[in-house]
Write a structure and sequence with these properties.
alpha/beta, 31% helix, 28% strand
Length: 185
Amino acid sequence: MPTLLQGLRARELQAALVFSQPGDRLDLDDDFELYPLLHDPLQLVLPEDHPCADQTHVSLEELRHDDWIGAADPRDPCDRLLSWACAQHSFEPVHTLRTDDYAVVQGFVAAGAGVALIPRLALGPPREDVAVRRLKGTPLARKISVAVLRTTAARSIRELVEALTERARLIQRRWSDADADAGLA
């Protein structure tokens, strides 16, 4: 169980940023309120010379025989979401390397060690020797929210939620503008 969720449940924290995938439950009781901030789509990262690198959208089916770079913990929500999506195409992704450092993931992909899914927010500026593409079909995404203990009356927590909400709006607007500029909107 992630440390932040443990801290929330133990009432050691009054607020925390949390993320989940469709179908995931955060298992927070009614003492907490969730403020949705952002849907963070998972981006496919391929070596620049990958056969699918010239496509705008790639089907998971086309990646059936590729090796995958995954999170250090195989129970990572993004890895579980990938496994679920691949199961819809009757295969299980084979993870050959695992790390929680997204810059290292891009390095492994650039070296040809496999392909990866990276949350858009964590992608940062992609390396020039990788291709970042979208998956065909329903976008895979994590939902980012801030969880707040309902009994928290601190003005600073309300201000934090407002600031995070505004920042999330700016990020979403920047993504929409970038997608429109790239012809993906």
